[in-house]
Amino acid sequence: MTNAQIYTIIALCIYAVAMALIGFISYGKSKTLDGFLIGGRNVGAWATAFGYGTAYFSAVVFVGYAGQHGWNIGIGSIWIGIGNAVLGCLLSWLLFANRTRKMTKKLNAKTMPDYFEKRYASKGMKILAAVIIFVFLVPYSAAVYKGLGSLFSAVFPGVETWVWMLIMATLTAIYLVAGGYIATTYTDLIQGIIMIVGVICLVCAVLSHDAVGGISGLIENLKNFQSFPEDPNPITGKQLTSIFGGSSFKFLCFNIMLTSFGTWGLPQMIGKFYAIKDTAAIKRGTIISTIFCIVIGCGAYLIGSTSRLVLGGILPEGGVDSVIPTVLIEVLSGGTLGIILLAVIMILLLSASMSTLEAVVLTSASAVAVDLIPAVRKKEPNPEKQMLLTRILCLVFVACSFIFATQNIPIIVSLMSFSWGIVSGCFIGPYIWGLFSKKITKIGAYSGIIAGLLTVGISTLVITLNSSFAVAAKCSPEMGVSAMAVSMIVVPLVSAFTKNKEQQRVDKIFECFNK
């Protein structure tokens, strides 16, 4: 066993014990459904801000997006990190955090489907929203395992990838099932600190590599970069140093819009605003989460943009998904300090993955236990049984996502690329307009959800029939952005031609903003 493997195992054991302790300590504060799902609406600024940021960035961002876009686009890929921080984080907090907290408290809504039911007086909308969450978010969580597994396999080549996936699933299940949202806030805070320290150290290590030569050397060396003659996808130094992505400008724009505006309609992100305790915490949280996203997002894509220099222009055997793992091994494999840092980075990416997984699983489990089953049964649920069911479903969904990830089922893998755009495309219009306008009707909100779903569904069907499903999957960013735009347009448009039958009830809901 190498030193790198020994240090990583020691760090992993310490981390595992810490996460398990947090789960058991938090158990006493999560015995009610309100405490389990939203922490009793009493979560502070730091915990909420770090929870938002860690749910935003998983190992997929580092291993998948940063590796792929940094390799193919170069310096311009950093705009994705900037867009995520400014549009996906800062603007989201400024526009929606306070209004979401106030309205969901007024409605006593604990989940996104619950919000739709109580805002629009529609149990059917609640069921539809819960089904969409279940179908698309559980497969999405499988992508989180993929990113983590490929990285750990690079450090432990003799260990099967599924072993690392199982470790991640087990740790997440222990503290999430035991402590619920309160446990995730504590773990997110620890995970967030690890992520920030790890990314800063990694950026410094990569920039100081001989092939990179610091920031100035990075620009100069990329400018002079030349692909090998046998490279099937040659790239020029001009492309790699183009500030706006060069020939990938359109692709870059759609990815920025999808991964930034997409957070505005994702229930696992918006749910963080339900739990924050007051306006003062929101103001502090806005600053903290934005700084966090700048460091993590820009740091990840900056590392990705150095990959061609560090690896000498040779794409690793595993393709773009192996770019970041190979860079880490190359940069951190020498010396005791580098090996220790490598162990920290491994825990960083484990933390990033677990925080995203916990947010998705909690959202999915609550969608079924709190929203779907009671609505279908048409019977007031027993609080204790509902609490037990929610815990069980958290465990079941962690297991399901693990199984999906290990089976390499093509349809599941393809669903991952659509999930972000579909879920946000369905919910973004009804959610945002429902916060800001009294004139939005139930039919208008329904139309927004269905329009977002059909935009992606019909586009996928047409492209698949004319070309292939693989081609459709490559167009998922454009589809997702289109779905969000359509939803935002359709909701007020249809509402303008339909009547709100319960205007008095809506007026009473909006009184929460007068306080």
CATH topology of the largest domain: Sodium/glucose cotransporter
* First-residue to last-residue Cα separation: 62 Å
Total helical elements: 22
Report the top-level CATH class of the largest domain. Answer: Mainly Alpha
Q: What share of residues are in beta strands?
A: under 5%
Tell me the name of the CATH homologous superfamily of the largest domain: Sodium/glucose cotransporter
Mean pLDDT across every amino acid position: 85
Order of helices and strands: HHHHHHHHHHHHHHHHHHHHHH
Features:
Sodium/glucose cotransporter, 515 residues
Question: How would you portray this structure in words?
Answer:
- The mean pLDDT is about 85.
- The chain is globular.
- The protein is built from 22 helices and no strands.
- It folds into two domains: about 5-405, Up-down Bundle (Sodium/glucose cotransporter), CATH 1.20.1730; about 410-515, no CATH class.
- With about 525 residues, it is mainly alpha-helical.
- The protein starts with a helix and ends in a 6-residue tail after the last helix.
- Helix 3 (about 45-55) runs parallel beside helix 13, helix 5 (about 80-105) crosses helix 12 (about 265-275) and helix 8 crosses helix 17 (about 385-405).
Secondary structure elements and pairings:
Layout: H1 3-25, H2 33-38, H3 45-56, H4 59-72, H5 78-107, H6 112-120, H7 123-155, H8 161-207, H9 214-223, H10 237-241, H11 249-261, H12 267-275, H13 279-305, H14 307-310, H15 323-332, H16 336-377, H17 383-407, H18 410-436, H19 442-466, H20 469-474, H21 476-496, H22 503-509
Helix pairs in contact: 1-8, 1-16, 3-8, 3-12, 3-13, 3-16, 4-7, 4-13, 5-11, 5-12, 5-13, 6-7, 7-8, 7-15, 7-16, 7-17, 7-18, 8-13, 8-16, 8-17, 11-21, 12-16, 15-16, 16-17, 18-19, 18-21, 19-21
